[in-house]
Every structure is written in C-alpha cells, then in structure tokens.
Amino acid sequence: MRKLILLLLLVSTLMLGVTQFIPQTYDFLLLSRDNAKYYEQMKKIALFDTFINGLGIESMIQGVIASQLVKYGAKMEQFNELLSGQILLVQRDQDFFLAMGPGKETEKLAKAIGDFLGKEIWVSAQKSYVVVSNNRDFANLCLKGGGVVPAEVTKRFEDSSMWAVGYSPRLLYDEAEFESLLLIKVESDKLSGSLQWKAKNDAAKKVLSEARPDPSYQLHKDPNLSGEIFVFSNVQSMRAVKVIFEQVFSNTTGNVLGSFVQTFGLPSDLESTTKQILVLSDKSTGKMAMSVGIAQFVQSLFETQSGTVTVEPAFYSVIEAQISPQEIAKVLGRGEVSGNELKIDSFTVKCDGKYVRVYSKQKSNEKASLEKALRIFDSTKHSLLVFVDFAPIIEKLLGMKSQSIFVAVGTVSSDVYITDWYVK
C-alpha cells in the first residue's frame, strides 16, 4: 500500500510538470507540450524548411547559444533537452513568467541564460526547471502556484496535432467582457490555429455585432492595391477594430508586431501613431484595405554590391472615412497640410470625400499576390483577411520557387469572434 501511494505521488508530480507554476490569478497563460516532436514536424513544412534548413538559421542560432553555454560548463544537448518538454508562459499586466523543462544541469543553464538576458531579467533554476521573469514579486506568486489548468485548455490537447494553447479568462474593453483562446497546431503541410474571443456579457455581444461583415464591401477592388501583404477590414463599426487593436498591443503580441514592422522597414512608432489615429474612429466606418510591397525591399537588404541603395517598402491603404487632413494633423501633432493632402514623413494622406488614402513614395506594380488574396476573401463571410505571399519574397531572396503563404480570416457569430490562420 505504501509503495502504491509513493507511485501515485510520483506519477502525479510528473503529470504536474510546468503547470505547478500557474498562479491563482493571471491575465493570460500559454502552455506548450512535446516541443521537440512538434518542432521537428514544423521544420518539414515548406516555409520553415526554407528558412530553418535551407538558410541554416538553426545552426547559426545554435552556434551563438553554444558559445554562451560553454562559459558556464553547460552543453547544447542540455539546453535542447530543457526546451524539448513543456513551456509555460504566464502574464499579468506587464509582468511575465516563463517556465521551461524538465531538464538536467538547470543551475548551469540558468546562469548562462541569465547572463545572456541581462540583469533586468530574473532567471532561476527550480529543481528540473528553469524559470524566467521580469518581476521577482510576480515570479514568487507563480512559484507558489495554487492555480489549475483551465478545462478549456485541457480538452484542446485531446487533439494530437495541438502543440500549444493560450487562454485568457477575462479581457475588458469599457463594459465589454471577453474570454479568449489561442490555438497552435502542427499539421502535415502547415502550421495552423485560431484566436477566439467569446463574449461574456451583453456589452461584448454588442461589439461582436459591430464586427459582422458587410456584403457590399468593395475596397478590396481598389486598383492601387499591390505588393505581397494585404489586410482587408470589413466590419460595421470602427469600435470593433479599436477593441482588437488595443487588446493585441496590451500583451506580448505587441512586442512581436513591433519587431515585425521595424524588420520590414515600416515606421518604428507605428503602434503609437495608429493609436493616435484611432482617436478619430468615429469618423470611420471600420472598412479598410491595405497593401504592402516588400519583395524589392528585402532583396535590396541582402544585395552585396557596394553602393546598393535600399529600396523602401511600398505602402497603400484606403479607408472609408469622412475626415479632413487638418483633423488628422491636429491629432498627430505633425505634418504639412496642402489642400486635401497631408504630408507626413515619407507618406501622403489624401482625404477625398468619403475615403482617406495613405500611400508611400515607393510604388509597387505587383498584382499576382493580390489575385491569390482575392481568391480567398469572401465579403459575405469574412470581416477580416490578412494575407502574406512569401513566394515572390523567397524567389527574389533565394532565387527558388515557393508556394508559401500566410492566411488569417475573421468570422463572427452572436457570441464569438474567430480568426482562423495558417502558414505553409
């Protein structure tokens, strides 16, 4: 009987894993499992195979990490083992807590990781796990645990293709309250998933009703759209766009998007500028179409010839809104107004009747990617489309053919907004 009790305790401990660090209250948590297995599967997907294996990015990153680990007597194999099991990310306000493991030599690994991340980040070995946080007080709450894995998360892992699940029990916007779920799956030919927002009260259902698509939407047919990246917003009210934007930039996703826009040469203050413009949301219907051309820009970054001039990305957007350039300039606090146009940095904002057009000096005439996006978008079903065509980018960068794309489409019902996405 005693041996049976000890065995049950051992099995319980092993099953507990990183979830022992879930606190009683949090804003968001992300749990991944069997990272080594799903990572190997992901590397077989066309886009990731191109960059991870074809460009040798994995070996380059491992070389940098290995040189850091050796200073503390740790090995790359031990670091890989640490990441191979489970990862837990917990967030509350601006504080985060990350747990990885189980693994061996965690004391050495913690010292190496801590040195690499710097003094502002707290890193510690907790038995067979390494934990990382930007706030020691919040980390202590996580170390005490006391929370449980939500049933909504547990049941999602019944799907054998499910790699990671994120969950937020409560998202607030004014009086609207939502519950959100993030799913990440590895399928045979693509990485896929969804972001779901479930309304928890009548105010939230009101927001969702404003996110319904308008079948009469026509902005995706604007002749000036071109490039490789496209975003179509087809909602009933700009308030729905504000809710999504503010929630996105309220967590770690904002940091990722910030890095993305800077990497591709877009303005580094895009978030703050967009927030300023959203102050004028009552002037807009929430309908918008945007395109970005970056293939030439990416190619110019990697040109080896001396004296090569970097080509700026080509940007164009059309927004259904009645607003003057003077009003936009007043909100932004900068820009030069001339007639119905506003010049700001390298962009021109043209206010023409019921539409506002924003475009860069650099132009793009590429239409092939737009045709792919239009074949997917359905204005009667989709309130959102985000489409990225990697094929021309990879062709110009590596000189090889590709069919890789990223697609995200938004649909809405009476109580849930779902953005389904995939990359292959």
Give a topology summary.
Elements: H1 2-16, E1 28-32, H2 35-42, H3 46-54, H4 57-69, H5 76-84, E2 86-92, E3 95-101, H6 106-117, E4 122-126, E5 129-133, H7 136-144, H8 151-156, E6 162-173, E7 176-186, E8 191-199, H9 202-209, E9 229-234, H10 238-248, H11 252-263, H12 270-278, E10 284-293, H13 295-301, E11 314-321, H14 325-332, E12 336-338, E13 341-344, E14 347-352, E15 355-360, H15 368-376, E16 384-389, H16 391-398, E17 405-412, E18 416-423
Antiparallel strand pairs: 1-2, 1-6, 2-3, 3-5, 4-5, 6-7, 7-8, 8-18, 9-10, 9-16, 10-11, 11-15, 12-13, 13-14, 14-15, 16-17, 17-18
Mind explaining what this structure looks like?
This protein is α+β, with helices and mostly antiparallel strands and 424 residues long. Helices cover 36% and strands 30% of the residues. It contains 16 helices and 18 strands. It has an 18-stranded antiparallel sheet, sandwiched between helices. α13 runs parallel beside α16 (391-398). The longest helix is centred in the N-terminal third of the chain and has 15 residues, at 2-16. It starts with a helix and ends with a strand.
